[in-house]
Amino acid sequence: MTVRVAVAGASGYAGGEALRLLLGHPDVEIGALTAGGNAGSALGEHQPHLLPLADRVLAETTPEVLKDHDVVFLALPHGHSAAIAAQLPDDVLVIDCGADHRLNDPTAWDRWYGGEHAGAWPYGLPELPGGRDALVGARRIAVPGCYPTVSSLALAPALAAGLIDPEVVVVAVSGTSGAGKALKPHLLGSEVMGSLSVYGVGGAHRHTPEIAQNLGRAAGRPIAVSFTPVLAPLPRGILATCSAQLTGGGDEVRAAYAKAYEHEPFVHLLPEGRWPTTAAVLGSNAVQLQVTVDPDLDRLIAVGAVDNLTKGTAGAAVQSMNIALGLPETTGLSTVGVAP
Amino acid sequence: MTVRVAVAGASGYAGGEALRLLLGHPDVEIGALTAGGNAGSALGEHQPHLLPLADRVLAETTPEVLKDHDVVFLALPHGHSAAIAAQLPDDVLVIDCGADHRLNDPTAWDRWYGGEHAGAWPYGLPELPGGRDALVGARRIAVPGCYPTVSSLALAPALAAGLIDPEVVVVAVSGTSGAGKALKPHLLGSEVMGSLSVYGVGGAHRHTPEIAQNLGRAAGRPIAVSFTPVLAPLPRGILATCSAQLTGGGDEVRAAYAKAYEHEPFVHLLPEGRWPTTAAVLGSNAVQLQVTVDPDLDRLIAVGAVDNLTKGTAGAAVQSMNIALGLPETTGLSTVGVAP
Amino acid sequence: MTVRVAVAGASGYAGGEALRLLLGHPDVEIGALTAGGNAGSALGEHQPHLLPLADRVLAETTPEVLKDHDVVFLALPHGHSAAIAAQLPDDVLVIDCGADHRLNDPTAWDRWYGGEHAGAWPYGLPELPGGRDALVGARRIAVPGCYPTVSSLALAPALAAGLIDPEVVVVAVSGTSGAGKALKPHLLGSEVMGSLSVYGVGGAHRHTPEIAQNLGRAAGRPIAVSFTPVLAPLPRGILATCSAQLTGGGDEVRAAYAKAYEHEPFVHLLPEGRWPTTAAVLGSNAVQLQVTVDPDLDRLIAVGAVDNLTKGTAGAAVQSMNIALGLPETTGLSTVGVAP
Amino acid sequence: MTVRVAVAGASGYAGGEALRLLLGHPDVEIGALTAGGNAGSALGEHQPHLLPLADRVLAETTPEVLKDHDVVFLALPHGHSAAIAAQLPDDVLVIDCGADHRLNDPTAWDRWYGGEHAGAWPYGLPELPGGRDALVGARRIAVPGCYPTVSSLALAPALAAGLIDPEVVVVAVSGTSGAGKALKPHLLGSEVMGSLSVYGVGGAHRHTPEIAQNLGRAAGRPIAVSFTPVLAPLPRGILATCSAQLTGGGDEVRAAYAKAYEHEPFVHLLPEGRWPTTAAVLGSNAVQLQVTVDPDLDRLIAVGAVDNLTKGTAGAAVQSMNIALGLPETTGLSTVGVAP
């Protein structure tokens, strides 16, 4: 079986990463590549690392160009997916790397993104409780945000097992590619290198309600999430430090994490004493996790690392595609990082 | 008045930064420079940025070499200062950039550093409540650790004003120079660049009891500190994100911070809407702070940035020297960073 | 004597660096700060490292705002200085950090920059033969380009002494701040970090004729310059590797360099066996040089390092101001870098 | 057909990259993993990115452990391969990632490496004239050095076609992983980040005679190579700028390069106007090249980019293995980089 896949937003970072992975997927044929302002130019001008596709010319992002494919990846700015998706046939698998269809709560959408909500789609994080079932046979999938992916996986086992209080603190440090190719002064290399900064502090970051939604689902009750993102000088990678008060002793913590992920191909609880690094997951679909207890505070500390563009975006999209189409879940994906 | 200053450990990062600042201090004459394994070699081989001192030859670190100075900076590995200091005359101002004399509690010393405690000295963080008075006329000063400096300044006003609960969460991201010039695999450039990592998780980092000591002094009661340090790919700078539950509404928060630091020459509460970056304080003695309230959680979030080698180490040493000797506190120090 | 200085283009990198240096200059009072698109906003929004000036509001760049000063620094895009300068009084010292007045040859101007040439001004590189004399008492000064500064100083002694052939090869690696704050995709942090690239290859870079002009002046005959700039992932610093065939043996090389710079406060020929690094000159006005001979090829290799924003731009501007006004040449400038 | 491969030196950078590629090679089964000082520990402690092999324990590097494999990769310090290889059966394919068997000239070996020469092996750069034939059926292969790979490919077509003079200038900028995991002060992250430096200047770098050997073979006469390596702050990647005087006009240059590499799967001459970047080849086996002529100097400028660990070391090793064993040359290798 060969699946024909179109990528809308092929000149951006999410689209480029999707293409990098799809080029290595044995069951995929890459179809239309589209863009907004870059339509008409060769992909090689924007993605020089995708040599086999360098001469492909970008089409305009329209339903007509996209519709005759088995799968359409939408890697568009937030708010642009719903209108396109509505014009694609129901039997086309549409995978939205943007935020449009992640949140269940229209009020939350309006508060953090603004405007009318396009409705939630099956959520592409199969490692959450019940997550995989929702994707089997799906034809519309919302790819999780990068911060929610690692934060949710780092805390869900403890919440699902009732081991921690429903107030969690997440401070996640990220490379710059999560912000996309937008031309903003604070994203210039001269500003980023040699500097650390924060943004979206105090619950203002749009990923806050998405983390809360995931954790609430895992816990079966509302979870209060204090989320602070930090920008650091590297292109890729997120390291999330997550903590919460234990409800009891910490004896069951490690077993709960080990059990939660024992059959997961991409989520790895490291041996005791080793801690995740983003370099170890660069370009891979793996999540590396470690968990410990602060003995003075009876507080759980869970740390996770992902590549924000791979497992944090495009890898999750491919993984979800595999599940939806009944392909082996790991096809075209790797747990081997590119390091050093 | 000219003060003659010796620097022990002149080939390391703390010693080098001390010399960089002392070269710009109008009242200082630089005396003996000493080292351990690097004794006998020229400073220029180790600190090529200190051009005016490039031909100075490093002596062995001995009391004899150091004693005939007005001030001695000790920038030695932890545990090496006490023995040297004990052999220096009482009227020599000894400023220890190491940890030997920071902690009041011998039990804490033994647990986090090991061995017998050498006793606490006046603590070189004048911006803490009562901190400045303890330094006037002092002849022994313990320079704070880099993480405790920024974390304590970010949380002390809220604790002193009773605005937050006595449980705080600090996640601080640091450049690599805080780890010194030790030849360890994880500090190699190839490992550091492109990666984020954690260490000392779960209360294991030695700066945890020092932060708790400072915050306890500010609050007047014990403070539980959850501290997680993150290593990021930049040479200098610490960005600390600190949070805690508010005891009441957040209305008094900003005023408390503004009042705490209104007369401080080096601690700057930024205007609302601007957030600290480490680039803005590179090479300067400034601390940039911002504080906000998460309205959904009634949680205070305070963020601070320092240069770990300047205000976080050698700048604090010079500032403390100035106070101890009755010089204007800001002499030889700057609030202007080197950016971009 | 206090000199009142205005800075036009205060929100850019060259303007910011000029202000950083001027804040430490004991004879300077900082007057008007102007900008183009950023006029009306506070300097602190653009240059958060310049804390003492954070609340200063940027004025529009007009002759009226600038004229009532002793000195005006122009840190404007290329092509914008001439019109402003023409409307400033003759007795105001105008220092142009842009390229408008560097080239003597109108044809070269037209080829590399385009349009009519505004005419050459005294050139702010006092370390070139005859360079200092041209600046004494000057009221119009053209600050050299960053690449020409280090490349010219690295090769001039050998050319002036007739030790090398008139064909030189310069490959210079630079940080990103030399490109300014322009919002271009290839300058985004995500693109820069982890990558090396070339630009302006084959004589296309605008600094090529400026290097040739300087070297021709030193040699007393035309010099053919092969110049290739490389962009590397760091904010500041240029390392230039320069080579040429020796005309004779290499015995006189070191002596020629030592003699050329023996009285220069900012140009340092390193001891044999040590090589320049850009970290050693970060934020300083120093140039570090080393020179050797490839014994198999009878070829001279000279390597120089500068901070492109300091000695490569704003430091040269301050140094030239000092000379022009009769102040000690090193006032407000340092040979001490900020490292690591 | 499944090939059983052992890797000696599995805890280093070259060995780790070999394993990363071999994990993706469909015809390879990974056998023994050995190390020197790290023998006895788990691979996951040293190579956390190689998740599928994390629990494998490293054996001592001995002939006994290595001999029962179809292929042995030696990723050992220079000078250690010959003794091991001499004790491995003749029909085992031994691929040496070190320098021991690269140079034909014992005098050159003694001068640049020291000691007795172990003799040259077939050279693993199939894209050089005649290079592929030498590898078919070989059972001993010397993997080229990283700098020689990109420098030779960038200049060979012009030399083979007689288009340039026999004196070439190569300045190549490299990331830090080429220096390996050696614990040297100048390789610490704090020293590397934010800095550019040179080393091995004036013909002192060991890759100089290897480049000359390759270019001499391509040209059919001796070539004088001026080679200067520059260290830049990134983990991986080499960008080489190479230049030489044209013997005639430059009209034939592009055609010569296009023809030389038209059938090569890994060497890509970019379309005119695009220039290589190291980010575009990160983790891939591709070489990106561009060539132009400086019209004022009649000088050829060729620029190439490779990942020093992939095409520059371990990718070349896998490519050579494929050729030697009669597998399709591109098996297990990619031309798709990991960017941004």
UniProtKB/TrEMBL annotation, chains A, B, C, D:
List of catalytic residues: 146
Q: Name one Pfam family in it.
A: Semialdhyde_dhC_1
Record function comment: Catalyzes the NADPH-dependent reduction of N-acetyl-5-glutamyl phosphate to yield N-acetyl-L-glutamate 5-semialdehyde.
Q: What is this protein called?
A: N-acetyl-gamma-glutamyl-phosphate reductase
List, in alphabetical order, the GO biological process terms annotated in this UniProt record.
Answer: L-arginine biosynthetic process
Which GO molecular function entries does the Swiss-Prot or TrEMBL record give? N-acetyl-gamma-glutamyl-phosphate reductase activity; NAD binding; NADP+ binding
Q: Which InterPro entries match?
A: AGPR, AGPR_AS, AGPR_dimerisation_dom, AGPR_type-1, NAD(P)-bd_dom_sf, Semialdehyde_DH_NAD-bd
**Which keywords has UniProt assigned to this entry?**
Amino-acid biosynthesis, Arginine biosynthesis, Cytoplasm, NADP, Oxidoreductase
- Report the subcellular localization: Cytoplasm
User: Under which pathway is this protein filed?
Assistant: Amino-acid biosynthesis; L-arginine biosynthesis; N(2)-acetyl-L-ornithine from L-glutamate: step 3/4
Q: What family is this?
A: Belongs to the NAGSA dehydrogenase family. Type 1 subfamily.
Residue span(s) of domain Semialdehyde dehydrogenase NAD-binding: 4-136
Instruction: Give the EC number(s) listed in the UniProt record.
Output: 1.2.1.38
GO cellular component term, pick one: cytoplasm
Q: Which reaction does it catalyse?
A: N-acetyl-L-glutamate 5-semialdehyde + phosphate + NADP(+) = N-acetyl-L-glutamyl 5-phosphate + NADPH + H(+)
